[in-house]
Amino acid sequence: MAEAILSAILGDFISRAISLLIGRFTSGKESTEGKLQRISHLLIRIHSVVEEANGRHISNHGTLQWLSELIDGEYQGCYLLDSIGYGSGQEEANELCDGDKVVPPQVSTLSLFNPAKRVRVDGGTMRRSNKFVSWRHNVGAADEIDRVLERLQGVSHDLREFIMLLQNCKSIRRPLATSIFREGQMFGRHVEKETIINFLLHEGEQSPAGELGVLPIVGAVGVGKTTLVQHACDDARVCNHFAVIILCSFSCVYDVKNNQVTLIDPLEFVKRNSFRDKRCLFVFENVDRHKKHILEDLLQILRRCCKEESKVIITTNNRRVANIGTVEPIILRVLRCAEYWFFFKAHAFAGTDTEGNPSLISAAMGIARKLNGSFFGAKIIGGVLRDRPDPNLWCKILRSNIGGNAPDG
């Protein structure tokens, strides 16, 4: 048995070494189209594994980090391919925008990015060979193609091992998606969502005995804290685990299970209801330094009146508020350019084929960059663009001042 394992390891090592040598020998001779074709094929493989992982309950932190790297590589590759197609519509978009030039994505924006959720990849991605001409003589772009290809080759080497790990993770029954718009709401946050769910489902492992578990989620305005928490609360695993799920904004409470909104102070709401025999989840949104003092008093009451194993999530843009938590906070950062582009694209195009509208892609990429990673902006502006696919309107939006702060998404 030991000899068989050793033989398999040596065989795998030799195979990878030969592949590496062949790759180095042929990299200078391979055409740009060939490299992009390989990127497209690698993306299909990686995407299929990511889809499988998204249907599993992954509780191991290391496996989640591994998934994060796969998603990261997927987004780099897909953003690169979209950026190449961008060039063919730039001139047309500039004309539509009355001389207001649409600045193409810089090569530097294709550097390493944080994890993201899912993108849709198919073999048709590479039917754009006529758009590669301007890239063939761009040294910086050629270097970026090589970097992305190397990155994808690196993360795809151990896909078999990753798939084997997934087999030990419990399958999640997910409803069939009916709209890419809904799927698009969680781009970039799958790993964070699973971290929240692991906190909610694990009883007594992450907090001192008898202590009410409190998880802070910290991030700037518009980064998507509310969206993330809503998706975690909507997950079937969480809904089945908690008898009561309450969202509190300090002026009203929303009972998720009964779909009821009550204009009442959360402290008064807790006093009027009995939760002693129920496992509860309370979510307190947008907690600032002033509300922190109110929440501290409220937590004391919840510790006494809620059943053990109840949990609390707070969202805040103030790191000093996070010390109220009983576990390490989740820090949400603004999605980088490639991640945010696919989040925005899902809202603006809603799954439609964009191949025939290169000028719209050009305008949309410019709009996405001006929104500075705002989840709220992607939902609102993207929805407007989706309902009115008029190039003139899109160019007006591109010229407008849409890059300011937006409410939390």
TrEMBL record:
Gene3D superfamilies for the chain: P-loop containing nucleotide triphosphate hydrolases (3.40.50.300)
Pfam family for this entry, one: NB-ARC
A GO term, aspect molecular function: ADP binding
Domain NB-ARC: from-to ranges: 193-352
InterPro entries noted in UniProt: NB-ARC, P-loop_NTPase
PANTHER family (UniProt xref): NB-ARC DOMAIN-CONTAINING PROTEIN, OS10G0134700 PROTEIN-RELATED
Record-given protein name: NB-ARC domain-containing protein
Originating species: Paspalum notatum var. saurae
